[in-house]
Amino acid sequence: MKNYILIVFLAFSTFSFSQKTDSFILDKEQIIQRELNGLSDFPIYRAYEFQDKSGVCELVLFENRKVISKKDTLNTKIQAICAMNDHGGFRERWTINDLVDAGETNIWFWTKYCSAKDLDGDGYTDPVIVYGTRDENEYIKRVKIITVYKDKKYAIRAVESDLDYGRSFKKDANWKLLPKKIQDSITKLVEKIRKEQDLLLKDG
C-alpha angle 46/177/120, rounded to 5°? Predict the structure, then answer.
C-alpha cells in the first residue's frame, strides 16, 4: 500500500512540475464566441488566450482608433486587460492603460514583440506587453515594455531623442525582484528591438 501511494505521489508531482503553458491568438470568430468585446469601450486590436496552472485567461489589447484614414489609423489611448474565465463570466486580473503625451500623435501596441509565455519555467504565464508612441514628425518617441509576473507589473520606460538630455531608459525600482530567467529574456528582447528598429534605448 505504501509503495502504491508513493507511485501515485511521484506521478502527480511529475505532472505538476512538468505542466506546460499554452497560448494562442484568437481570431474574430473566437473573440465573438468568448464575448470579449464587452470588456472595454475600445475596439479590440488583438486577443490572446493562455492556459497555465492558474486556469484559462484572456489577454485582450484595445486601441481607440481615434483617427481612421486610408493612410493610417491613429490611436490616442490604449488598454490591455487580462481576465480569467470564471463561471461563465470574467474576473479581471490586471489592466494597463496609457495615452498619448504632449507632442505625440499616435500610440500603439507593438504586437511583434508582445508575448504570453512562461519565461521562467514555473508553470505560469509571464505576459510581456510592448507599445510605443510617435511624435508629430512620425519619429518613435516613447517605448514601454511591461512584464507581468504573478499579476504584478515590472516596466521599462524609454524615451528616444536626438539630444542626449532628452533620451532616457529606466527600469522600475522593483525590476530586480524578477527571476533572472525573466530578466535575461527581456534584456534579449530589448537588444532585438534596438537592432530591428534602429533605436538607442539608453540613457543620455
Answer: 55
Q: Which one, of 140, 81, 70, 80, lies nearest residue 105 by Cα?
A: 140
CA distances from 113 to 9, 11, 62 (A): 40, 37, 16
CA distances from 90 to 28, 62, 126, 184 (A): 19, 17, 19, 32
Q: Which helix (DSSP H) or strand (DSSP E) does residue 5 occupy?
A: helix 2-18
- Answer for the pair 186, 128: CB distance below 8 angstroms, yes or no: yes
| 3-class DSSP assignment, residue 182 | helix
For 132-146, write each residue's pLDDT tens digit.
Answer: 999 999 999 999 999
Nearest-angstrom CA–CA distance, 6 and 2? 6
Which uninterrupted H or E stretch holds 28? Answer: helix 28-33
Q: Are 126 and 182 in contact (CB under 8 A)?
A: yes
Threshold 0.85, pTM exceeds? yes
Instruction: Categorize the per-residue pLDDT at 19 as very low, low, confident or very high, splitting at 50, 70 and 90.
Output: low
pLDDT in tens, 86-130: 887 899 999 999 999 999 999 999 999 999 999 999 999 999 999
